[in-house]
Amino acid sequence: MAAMNLVQSKHRSKYYYDRKHVQHFRTEEMVYVLFLKNPKSHESFSIGYYVQYTHNEFKCKFISYRRETEQNEDPAKWFVSQLYMLAEELTNMYENPLPMKDVDQRSFVSDTICTSVEDRSTRRMSKSEIIATLRDNIVERLTTVVTSTTITQESRFSIILQNKEKYISFTKHIDGSDINFKFIDSFRFMSSSLDKLASYLDKLEIADKEFKKEFTDVQIELLRRKGVFPYDHIKSFENLNETSLPDKKSFCSSLYDSGISDENYNYAQTVWKAFNIKTLGQYSGLDHYLKTDVLANVFEDFRSKCLHTYELDPAHYYTTPGFTWDAMLKYTGIKLQLMTDIDMLLFVDRGIRGGINQCCNKYAKANNRYMESEYDEDEWSKYLMYYDVNNLYGWVMTQSLPCDGVKWVGDLNNDFFNVCDDTLVGYILEVDLKNPKSVPDTHKDLPLCPEHAAPPESNQEKLVTTLNNKERYVLHYVALKQALKYGLRLKHIHRALQFNQKPWLKPKIDLNSEMRKNVKNKFKKMLFKLFNNAVYGKIMENDRKRVDGKLVNQWEGRYGCEAYIAQPNLHSCAIFNENLVAVQLARTEISVRKPIYIRLAVLDLSKSLVYCFHYEYMQERVGDNAKLLYTGTDSLIYEVSDVGMYAVMKTDLHESDTSNYPADNQFNIPLVNKK
């Protein structure tokens, strides 16, 4: 078992600020990389990259390479050689800066505060780190780039991984240079297709600027829409030398199991003629050029929005959750207490349970007058109703949440049950609960207090709801009050933990929600929704699930494969080829750097809202006529008998968001409460 290391520390005082201040990371230089490959063999036949210089747009450039035959250099190896050339170019640029004006010189001499990090420091900054942004399936691209480095060359690199086959980031250290290239995947920031993200933008400034260097206005207009390419048609390098566009059938995609429309094929023919394309390889280069510039456009626009809203640059992070966590801490100014008592940590950890997902009743069939010809008047009227809680975790994160003052409660005779939900002091309790015999009929569809247990005929534990009595059950005091209100009985309190709480996360959540309401641009709307979801994702992150890993290209030595596989914490290996192995290691020490009591509170409060809807709305409003069929984390499906549910909805419009109903819906329900 890994040793537990509890870390008590405040959040970093240095934030990754505006890209204008680049002494530390120099991220005005971004590199956007795209590969084109055979989708079946995954063999790359083309690669291109775009270098973005924020402070010198005249130096921005797109460079590509296409492998025309098997004898030509592999695109990944070509790219590694380009990295060395780019590192040399950037080193020369940094070592020979432009002369400062007199006013800048005086300001530099007199300043004692680093504008990058708001820290009184005159320390020499560390190595320059150039961010290289990839798109989708970073694993394949990273391993391709790594394997392209020859074994005879001293090669240094480091990785952050989820497991031996799935990487988060990769850093290539350029030998003999102060330049490092850090590869990140834009998909970990914006998990939509590149085409969809581009469609959200009002304009593609980078793409338009690059296109004007080479193309006419008519040609540029053709490039403003999504291109099409017959990826599955490319079986060998000879296909790239074809002198005509393949027929329409060749554009069928095995990945999506579909072909292309006549409109798209006609568009491809028009592009072929307008650009006077000679070979299919040349056509692929045009598609590559377009997508690389679009990637640069999308990520630069994403950076600009983040910098404008939070004054933080996401290029210094690996994922959106990591970025939004820092943005939240910076915006709210909250200082969260980390637990240094191992007993406290294990106590809270026992109370962390995810959302409930279960099928309560296996079969139901609707029968009501809205089904027209399928309605059977001789049978009971039945409605199948699907309810989904709007923005469940967004709501929870605006409630009073723990922040500090975590300590054991000495006097367990305190009145924990008359404490308000939003009081300044809250509790986590370990209790014994009894399920009285009079309760099961009302609780049979959705029992209270779910627990981790192995279902019948299974050895794997899952989160299940049962009518069993609960012993030494750890839960949030709001969830306990709710359980007692609905009929469970308290037998004993073993331990209790108290904490200070307030709605400290509400300003950040409300900011994103308000920004999302006020912007018309789809890209911005998507971002602000993403920022709220990502905060929740970071709260849910479990430090224990992190792993260590190494990419090794040698057998012997301290950092060779032989040494790693001999370690007792070896988990597994993935062999890419005879010169490259990924080694996954279990962590021997875990540093708990998250306030996990927040995770418990968020999960328990979210379940309490779902329970509230079931017990206080559906059971009170419909009674025994409602039968729960299924529940997900934030959704419930009911079979309702002999009650006109749409008439009930009209009466209780304040409870529902009907904004997505058709304006002329057959239920005559007004469109209200858009969230």
From TrEMBL:
Q: Tell me which Gene Ontology terms the entry assigns under biological process.
A: DNA biosynthetic process
Q: So which domain of life are we looking at?
A: Eukaryota
Stored InterPro entries:
DNA/RNA_pol_sf
Entry protein name: DNA-directed DNA polymerase
